[in-house]
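Page 37, top half.
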Amino acid sequence: MAPSSKTKICVVGLRGVPGVMGGIESHCEQIFPRLVEMTADYDVTIIGRRPYVTGDAYDYRGIRVVPLPAARNKYLEAISNTTLAVLYARFVLKSEVVHIHGIGPALLGPLARLLGMKVVVTHHGQDFERAKWNGIARAVLRLGEQCAIRAAHRVIVVSKSVTEELRRQNRRREARIEYIPNGATELPADIAVGDETARLHGLGLEPGRYILAVGRLVPEKGLHFLIEAFKKANPNHKLAIVGRADHDDDYSRGLLAQAGDNIVFCGFQNHGVLRTLYRHAALFVLPSTHEGLPIAALEAANLNVPMLLSDIRPNLDIDLAPINYFRSGDSDALAAKLRQSNYDVFRIDAGDIGRRFNWGAITAATQKVYAHLAAV
């Protein structure tokens, strides 16, 4: 890499930025604008997917976003777009570094390396654990994880426990594997505080009188467990669920069919609305059976919202008090906690979360990974 010119980095494996639903998308939206603000050493292009990102290429906070086609199929969407993205990075952008996000897109790591680019992979979670995949898809995702470990010059892992596991399983390559978590996003205040109540009323909610969940309407988010537990507990609150499905299917339709006076589906919401929903929630619940490191939980924690998380390893990596966790998949255990008369017992230390999961420090750690590539 020539020290006198900017290093060209192409970021692939995500749907796009800004304001596109998904943990990987939120991660990239936070990291890469900060990176180009931090140093003038990098020229960053993010490849998005049509139709999540429409129109022509555009600039966003110092980075270039280029939409490329993707197959409209849950099995082929990511891999089809990433294939085009890697070729675009090499032959159109002339990129020196390709940064792949996710173990599915990491299947293209060997091709990117064969084409002469330095390869970084961010491991956002062991996606082969997701309930939506069949046996073949899970095997392919496991292969993607191995492609990441073997082909990448550096592997960033957002979960501390998964980092430790991968290092144990890959002793010869453990020096390539680095733990850099997601951050606690400070969501913008887009309206006056006095207008937030009216915003909530528009969604059928009252301040302090609802339990909040945020996530895509997919099985691994565990929203069916939450709804079951909510009905068992019958608390004096509504249940508000924010998010939509990646692809309309029987599972998402089954969830939406349970909407009623006390269960409100709010759909996908922008950062400003999310901030309002977090700030005025009586309790935030994340019932996931699979995560990388949950940005939604970190967003809620950063706003000092009382919270309950399932006790899966990535959620435990946030290192909250035992009272803030419940047994994953156990609706009775969750219902018992929802019956609490005062949810303030589940409040966390927002300052501690902000210090431990700081996007500025996380961006600086990512920049060091890029700097180390010059010596590879």
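Page 37, bottom half:
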Amino acid sequence: MEPTTLEIEFLGTGTSTGVPMLRCHCPVCMSSDPRDKRLRSSAVVRYQGARLLIDCGPDFRTQMLRASDDNIDAVLLTHIHFDHVAGLDDLRAYCYKKPLPIYARADVLKDLHQRIPYCFSDHPYPGVAQFEEHVIVDDKPFLVEGVRVEPLPVMHYRLPIVGYRIGPLAYITDANAIDDKVINRLKGIPLLVINALRIEPHLSHFCLRETLDVIKRVEPARAYLIHMSDRIGFHADSPKILPSNVALAHDGLIVKV
């Protein structure tokens, strides 16, 4: 990969329940198309020599065992919900030599201290995951392994969360409201990754129509949809209802820009 090329590998593209959803026997959940099998949303971004994990949910171990490259230099968290942080304990394999850098809002880090206190202890039990904490401040860019990362403050119903801009990529998940200032900062971006839970409206996530409205305002060269439930429909049918520059992402997909 060329040094100026960004690569994103989608580890998971599903919502909090995953697809298939337990006890659901709808046609999408029963689909034999592997693109309709969606683990919880997460991705690895590889850019300028850095390998950045965005979110670390309960499927992390499975995702990394089948990833094209299992190396990670740092973790970027979007918010505290279980489907985005439940795999942090499995990062112990990345902490043998030194703590792994983790970037998150202050409220997220505080919550993690309560959820997995043994990972932040002054005298940790041998072998546990250990983290080097970095607090994200909304709208304040920071460097990770020399790579500039720009936080994108968005709303997940009443919960402030962050997306990320990394070079030519913007990654936004779980949002249901994006301020005009953020939209303007993303105008014409080469690659936009954004959530679209389902066809019909939802209280705390963009539905497909709302996501397409955001994409129309941002005008990216390409856009991929993530954090999808079974009610987004079959992957194979999606080209019939999406603009030519928009596609459903799927687990294992690698996109370069």
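Margin note: The first helix runs from residue 60 to 65.
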